[in-house]
Structure formats: structure tokens, C-alpha cells
From TrEMBL:
Protein source organism: Geospiza parvula (Small tree-finch)
EC assignment: 1.14.11.8
Organism ancestry: Eukaryota, Metazoa, Chordata, Craniata, Vertebrata
GO cellular component terms, semicolon-separated: mitochondrial matrix
Alphabetized Pfam families for the sequence: GBBH-like_N, TauD
UniProt keyword list: Carnitine biosynthesis, Dioxygenase, Iron, Metal-binding, Mitochondrion, Oxidoreductase, Transit peptide
Entry cofactors: Fe(2+); L-ascorbate
Gamma-butyrobetaine hydroxylase-like N-terminal domain segment(s): 55-130
UniProt subunit comment: Homodimer.
GO MF entries: iron ion binding; trimethyllysine dioxygenase activity
CDD domains: CAS_like
Name of the featured protein: Trimethyllysine dioxygenase, mitochondrial
């Protein structure tokens, strides 16, 4: 094991003596002429040590140990001939790189890795850039910082609603709104004129509206104009929408324009909080919910509306490299026949689904709000489940779906991590 002999692993941080530790590659003879070594670095910069292997460079920078494949190192070259910094696009034809490529020479100073390739081309990498962009660096990072909540956590946080004018007219207002939205998966704008047109203006401030089979901006009342229980007065248990799309809608906007009657409160539940609890209590349940693909389906034949949508995917969708949850697909109404799961897994899946449902239904996870004209709710439909209480009387909601990429785009342009 080479690491047993590497001083930086024994000593933690590199000492201040500036002494070099020569290192010989192990295994069946040295593969490259370049000797690996731990280099002295400026006192303030993290220790850097490196070692060459047959097909990759192993580099320790601070606490990150990176294994950088030679083809990867050639492919990501940021030199003027390989990368267009005006368009931020690769110009290098990756298919022209020899898949057995090895650098001819390697050098590291306190901030930069220099590689010379067999054709004489020189590639430079900032060590910080490598630490951020390596697989190991990504693994340590979360893609989306979030605050998971139950009702108490959310209420105690006293997340403010953003005033409509500040949202529409200032970057600060918009940024605060988006920060709340990214952290909690829900956010409110208040003092909005209760019309469909004004709601559309809000939506367009952060995103492109995602047109679906329900239209672009939709209005709905309990008139059963469409083949879905949303268009009735019945209670709706917690769910995410459009689970029957290959890519469920990212965000849902709700604006209650009118309600003359009783009931009709909106229920919000942080699906990621519930999933996190399942992970802690029964990781095997979490894993099953993340692995077993299911179908959701929307079959409609009402009036002139004929639709048949199918979406396939697990209940919990995680990034494969760090297991971070990014999408929950949970809609017991729209879940289709389970016919993609082998016999011996079905029962285990039902147990896992029950465990998640039990968490989602814990009363302390339920946030109940009464939507009022003027107050617009944005829900992260990949994370937060919504439902509603049964109601009486005339109730009219308007809203739309947003494309997730465009909301995140706006957030990034304002300097937020999204
Ligand atoms: C929001 N809007 C009323 C337009 C549509 C409702 C869609 C309801 C469907 N069961 C689902 O969960 O996707
Ligand atoms: O009526 C409501 O408050 C919400 C209904 C619903 O779930 C939906 O429109 O997606
Ligand atoms: Fe819904």
C-alpha cells in the first residue's frame, strides 16, 4: 500500500520544513520516467503530494485525494486550442485523444499542475480547480444546499413572504425569494393582484412557463371539466404532480383567486425530510424506493380531452455519485399497475412504501396553509408534496408549472448555489 509510506498521510498536513519526500511508484516497475514526490508548498497553501500510476495521477491537495485519469486530464485541458473561453465550450475533439495517453512530464508548483503530453502540448490546471472539479471533490459536496423541515422547523424559521413589488422590481427581492425557495422547497409572494394575468407575470419573472396538457396558465374549479379529482371538491391526500411525465414538472405555482365556502386548506409536506428519516431508520427501505422503477399513468377521456401519459422512475431519485436525493415521485392516485417489479421484491417494496407513507403522514410533518387571494405559493414539485382539504362552495385556483432548469438558471445568475 503506497499510502503507508506517504509522509503526508502519516503526518496529516505537510510540515513547514519544505523538505521533499522522494517517492517511487510501486508495482511492477516504474511506468513513467517522472518521479512522483510531495512538493513543498507556500506555507499558506494546502499541502500537495502526487504520484503517477499507469493510467492516472494521484494528487493530494489539502484533505482531498484525487485520482485523475490521464485521458480525463487531456480532455479537460483549458488551453486556448482546447477550450473556447468566450463560449465556455470544448474545442478539443475528445475522440482524437489516444485512450492510452500518458504525460511525458509532470510538474506541480504551489498552485498549478503542469502536464506535457507526447506531442508537446502543455496543459495547466489550477489545483483549486482540480479539487473542486474532481470526482472526489464533487462527492464531498452537495449539489443543492437545503433545510429539511417539519411543521415546527418551518414555522420557527419564520421565513418571510416576499412583497410582490420587491419580487418584480428588485434583484434583492427576487434573490431572497429564490433563496427561500431553494432552501425550503416552498416560497410565497404576497400583495399580488388576484388575476391570472398578474400570476403569469410573477411566474415569468423566474422562469419559462411549462405548458402541459393542462395548458399554460390554468384556472380550475370543481367543475370536473377534466378527468382528475383535482377538479372536484374532494380532499386530496399529499402527492406530487405529473408523476406520469418522464420528467415531472419542477415547480408548481398556486394562486387561489376566490373561495366562498369552507375547508379547502392546502397541505404541504417536505418529502425529503420524510425520506431522510426513512434512510436513518431503515436504509434498506430507502434503497428499495431508490432502485425499484415504477410507472405512473394519466388516462383521461372526459369531454374533448383524451390523454394517455406514462412516466417511469423510482419513488426516490438520487444522484449516483453521492446518494443525494433530488426528486421524489409520490402519487398514490396516479401510480400505475406494478408490473416492472419481480415477485420476490414486490412485498418488500410495499413495506418500504408504507414506511415512507407513515413518515409523510406524521401530523408533525404537515404544514397547513389557507391560500388567500393575493398570496401566491410556489412549490418545488420534486421535493414538497401538496394536498388539500375537502371544501364547500365556489373555489377558483389559477397557476402554472415552471421548468425547473429555468428557475435554477435564474437563481445561479443571482449568485445562488442551485
Ligand atoms: C394543477 N392542475 C389542476 C392543472 C392539474 C392537476 C393534475 C392532477 C394530477 N392528478 C397530478 O397529480 O398530476
Ligand atoms: O385544489 C388544490 O388546492 C390543489 C389540487 C391539486 O393537487 C393540484 O391542482 O395539483
Ligand atoms: Fe396536485
Amino acid at each position: 500500500m503506497w499510502c503507508q509510506r506517504l509522509p503526508w498521510l502519516l503526518r496529516g498536513r505537510r510540515g513547514s520544513t519544505g523538505r521533499r519526500w522522494p517517492w517511487l511508484p510501486r508495482g511492477p516497475g516504474p511506468v513513467l520516467a517522472v518521479p512522483a514526490r510531495c512538493h513543498p508548498t507556500a506555507p499558506a497553501s494546502p499541502c500537495c503530494a502526487w504520484q503517477l500510476h499507469r493510467d492516472h495521477l494521484e494528487l493530494r491537495y489539502g484533505s482531498t485525494v484525487m485520482r485523475l485519469d490521464f485521458v480525463w486530464l487531456r480532455d479537460h485541458c483549458r488551453s486556448a486550442s482546447c477550450y473556447n473561453t468566450k463560449t465556455n465550450q470544448r474545442s478539443l475533439d475528445t475522440a482524437s485523444v489516444d485512450l492510452a495517453i500518458q504525460p511525458q512530464a509532470v510538474r506541480v508548483d504551489e498552485s498549478t499542475l503542469f502536464l506535457t503530453w507526447p506531442d508537446g502540448h502543455v496543459t495547466r490546471y489550477g489545483l483549486q480547480w482540480l479539487a473542486r472539479n474532481s470526482y472526489e471533490g464533487q462527492k464531498q459536496q452537495v449539489m443543492h444546499p437545503r433545510i429539511l423541515w417539519n411543521a415546527e422547523i418551518y414555522q420557527q424559521a419564520q421565513v418571510p413572504s416576499i412583497d410582490c413589488r420587491s419580487f418584480l422590481e428588485t434583484d434583492e427581492g427576487l434573490k431572497e425569494f429564490l433563496q427561500n425557495f431553494l432552501l425550503y422547497g416552498i416560497a410565497f409572494v404576497e400583495n399580488v393582484t388576484p388575476t391570472k394575468e398578474d400570476t403569469e407575470i410573477l411566474a415569468k419573472r423566474i422562469s419559462i412557463i411549462r405548458e402541459t396538457i393542462y395548458g399554460r396558465m390554468w384556472y380550475f374549479t370543481s367543475d370536473f371539466s377534466r378527468g382528475d379529482t383535482a377538479y372536484t371538491k374532494l380532499a386530496l391526500d399529499r402527492h406530487t404532480d405529473t408523476t406520469y411525465f418522464q420528467e415531472p414538472c419542477g415547480i408548481q405555482v398556486f394562486h387561489c383567486l376566490k373561495h366562498e365556502g369552507t375547508g379547502g386548506r392546502t397541505l404541504l409536506v417536505d418529502g425529503f425530510y420524510a425520506a431522510e428519516r426513512v434512510l436513518r431508520q431503515a436504509p434498506e427501505h430507502f434503497e428499495l424506493l431508490a432502485k425499484v422503477p415504477l410507472k405512473h399513468e394519466y388516462v383521461e377521456n372526459v369531454g374533448g380531452c383524451h390523454n394517455h401519459m406514462i412516466g417511469v422512475g423510482p419513488v426516490l431519485n438520487v444522484y449516483p455519485w453521492n446518494n443525494e436525493l433530488y426528486l421524489i415521485r409520490y402519487n398514490n392516485y396516479d401510480r400505475a399497475v406494478i408490473n416492472t417489479v419481480p415477485h420476490d421484491v414486490v412485498r418488500r417494496w410495499y413495506h418500504a412504501h408504507r414506511a415512507l407513507t407513515a413518515e409523510l403522514r406524521r401530523p408533525d410533518n404537515e404544514l397547513w396553509v389557507k391560500l388567500k387571494p393575493g398570496k401566491v405559493l410556489f412549490v418545488d414539485n420534486w421535493r414538497v408534496l401538496h394536498g388539500r382539504e375537502a371544501f364547500t362552495g365556489y373555489r377558483q385556483l389559477c397557476g402554472c408549472y415552471l421548468t425547473r432548469d429555468d428557475v435554477l438558471n435564474t437563481a445561479r445568475l443571482l449568485g445562488l448555489q442551485a
